[in-house]
Design goal:
There is one protein chain. By secondary structure, this protein is an alpha/beta fold. The protein folds into two domains: 2-174, NAD(P)-binding Rossmann-like Domain (Rossmann fold), CATH 3.40.50; 181-275. The chain has helices at 12-21, 36-44, 52-58, 68-78, 94-98, 126-129, 151-165, 176-207, 212-230, 240-253, 264-275; strands spanning 2-7, 27-32, 61-64, 87-90, 108-114, 140-148, 168-173. Strands 2-1-3-4-5-6-7 form a seven-stranded mixed sheet, sandwiched between helices. Helix 4 (68-78) links the parallel strand 3 and strand 4 (87-90).
């Protein structure tokens, strides 16, 4: 049996881990949660919080389900007391990429993050189709990285990640550096920003007099077909007029050197802001 010390057990991500593992006999869960509200949520799920010391002493796996800004602080308190060979899993690459996890060569560091259910999917069940976040109904891909440790640690980490974030469509093995390119650079710095601008553009159309439902319906339909075209889901292309509009609008909406957000220095700066710690 694998004994897991789950830090941040009563938070939103921690409760996802609790729900995913509570009926899996090969995993024994030790929930560490300091807040009263979090402990109440654990009790509702049938778990009692344990002390940090008890969890550290017994664990052979540690899962950090805490905000990025707390990972370094908690790891500094926990890692020195772990048994040799323990696997420490973080659910985001920020702390690992920033180099703020404690140096200890006799333990393994494994990093994973869900991709969330894809826009293009084959989900037939309506609940699964509305599972946008990936809360156990819709299939989603994962990215996983072994920061340090033996190859067997990767297998242990991926198996646990599949349990936490299942059902899993695919698990991709990447490096910590590649995961940081995916998040924050690709998914947040670029994609989330562009989508926020799209929402602001819809609101601007409404402000200028377009009926709100008409604007939303028109935009949602066009996003659907435009995504299908851009990502080669259909054998189609933009009209000549649309291509011209895209070419001209890029000059207005984007800086010519916008891809600098993928440069290592830019990613490191973003990670430092996420973790609140100067990267090592």
């Amino acid at each position: 049996m694998t004994t897991i010390a789950l830090f941040g057990a009563g938070g939103s991500m921690g409760m996802r881990v609790v729900r995913a593992l509570k009926n899996v006999p090969e995993y024994r869960l030790l929930s560490v949660e300091p807040s009263d509200a979090g402990q109440a949520r654990l009790r509702e799920a049938g778990f009692a919080a344990v002390s940090k010391e008890e969890a550290v002493k017994a664990a052979n796996v540690v899962v950090m389900a805490v905000p990025d800004k707390l990972v370094g602080q908690i790891a500094a308190e926990v890692v020195p007391g772990l048994r040799s060979g323990t696997l420490v899993m973080t659910l985001d690459p920020a702390a690992a990429h920033a180099g703020i996890l404690p140096k200890r060569p006799d333990i393994s560091y494994f990093v994973t993050h869900p991709a969330h259910p894809p826009v293009f999917n084959d989900e037939a069940d309506m609940e699964a189709r509305r599972d946008f976040f990936g809360s156990g109904k819709a299939k989603q891909a994962l990215v996983c990285a072994l920061m340090q440790g033996p190859e067997s640690a990767y297998a242990r980490g991926e198996a646990l990640a599949r349990r936490i974030f299942g059902p899993v469509l695919r698990a991709h093995r990447v490096t910590v550096e590649q995961m940081a390119i995916l998040e924050p650079a690709l998914s947040e710095t670029v994609a989330a920003t562009c989508l926020t601008i799209i929402r602001e553009a819809m609101d601007e159309a409404i402000r200028r007099g377009v009926p709100a439902q008409a604007a939303r319906d028109f935009l949602m339909g066009h996003i659907n077909i435009e995504l299908a075209i851009v990502f080669n889901e259909i054998d189609w292309q933009f009209s000549a007029g649309a291509q011209k509009a895209i070419e001209e609008a890029k000059k207005v909406l984007f800086q010519p050197d916008w891809k600098r957000v993928f440069e290592p220095a830019s990613i490191r700066e973003s990670v430092e802001k996420i973790t609140g710690v100067k990267a090592a």
